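Teaching assistant here, posting this on the class forum so everyone can see the example we discussed in section. The complex has two components, and the goal was to see what a joint structure prediction looks like when all of them are supplied at once.
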Amino acid sequence: MIHFYHVTKRFDRYSTALHDVTFHVDKGEFVFLTGASGAGKSTLLKLILRQIRATDGQIVVNGRNLSTIRRSHLPFFRREIGMVFQDFKLIERMTVFENLSFILTILGLPPKEHKKMTYSALRAVSLHHKMGAYPQQLSGGEQQRVAIARALINDPLVLIADEPTGNLDPDLAEDIIRIFSDANVRGSTVLIATHDRDLIERSGRRVITLDHGRITEEKIAAPERPMRVEGIFGLG
Amino acid sequence: MKDPEIPRSTPSYFFREALRRIWVSKRTSSVAIAMITISLLIVGTFLLISENLGRAVTRWQGSSRATVYLDAEATPEQTASVAAWLSAHPDFGKHRFVTKAEALQRFRTYFSNLREVVGDLNENPFPASFECEVSPATAQSRAFAAETAELKSMAGVDQVQLDWDWVRRLRKLVDLVNIAGLVAGGILALAAAFTIANVIRLTMMLYHEEIEIMRLVGATERIIRGPFLIEGLLQGTIGAIVAVILLFAGYLIAARLMPPASSLLWGFLFAGFLPWQKLAALIAGGMFAGWFGSWLSVRETSEEGPRFTED
């Protein structure tokens, strides 16, 4: 589903974010991407979304080569990817409901479907009671959950998240990971960037470790205890 | 791969968003709307003047006149002889005798502000005349020219004046007014379009972050640009409608303020309002200027590599 072939990302002569990175994430996999701050995690996720272009190498996501994809096809490619940004990227002037229903407008779904689907997505992150609130009226953790609900609302083929548990307490972080796991069970390929080692250890998932822009380790984490997978969106 | 297209539910989103943005940026939107209004008001005024002048010219052309002015010292016999000649020549159709006193009275009615000038004179300076109705076709014939020359040579006749000479001049004036209106209006409409372009550019800068987010979640350029294009279109439409309303109000006020029968020209200029076709063209012009202005701005935008923050 996600294939990196000798990818290098250089911003200028003195700043190389990724060096010759090669890895593959299969369809339906759940993978953690970890590393210290500045390791290149966010850059790697931005490359997957084609937010930035690789300097060298090839990236193929869901069968599309991101070096050659036409600009006019980028929006349609991005609709297949649910992205949870580190800074949430919620539209400040829109309510929580509008932030989510905007995705459905883009997808061309009839307005009568918006309420049902938005409610369902927000219920999954326990924020269905905040549909009318504006992002600035929410805590950091709540904003993060809205961003997650937005990423999940159209059941994306690929779900990528940049530090999705960074602003959450451990219990809530586990709930969020459970939501991603459930999306994974429903068929989404999941790639989460985090430096929360405990969370990774508990998950028992595959882990890719980055250090100064290079992959230094790829392994399956040994779970201390299995993560619960519970029903969300009325499924499970 | 699906072709880029606008989903069916998005037009209502475009309009909602455009109206909201106009409301949020009331001041800047007002400037753009005012520019459109001013330029279309000027075009509309020129159109109104030329329309009414054109109507007057058409009316006069339909029933052109030849005026036979008599000498101040023309005897009753000479006057009778001229009347008999006119009756004998059907090209001059119906004719009517206007006495010196009647000519003076007409002047006092049409040029009331000059009434005192004439009052100071000891005698009536206006000559008696015959007003003859002549069809435009007849007026252009060679036979008529010969008859006019014969009439001019008759005793007691001072001058034969043909209305269509100045009707022709008036027609040229109408054309000139039309051209002046179109040039001035065109320049102003272009200025208005550039104002709208700048307003839309400012709005896009204001929504820069939002636009970036929209792109990242899969919005096409059409979906991003749509509300901005509609915003310009609405600004142009509102400006044009306001211009038409102001033009009509101005026309009503001018028609009401018109002194009764004091000015022939005034009466011509405000004889009627613009036909609906020209009003529709004015509104369409405003809509186009608005759309064109926003198109100038949005066509410059496209996805660029956004700045990143390294983890």
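For the discussion questions: Confidence is low (pLDDT under 50) at residues 1-7, 304-311 of chain B. The interface with chain A takes residues 1-2, 4, 7-10, 12-13, 210, 213-221, 223, 302-303, 305-306, 308-311 of chain B (CB under 8 Å). Think about how each of these relates to the inputs above.
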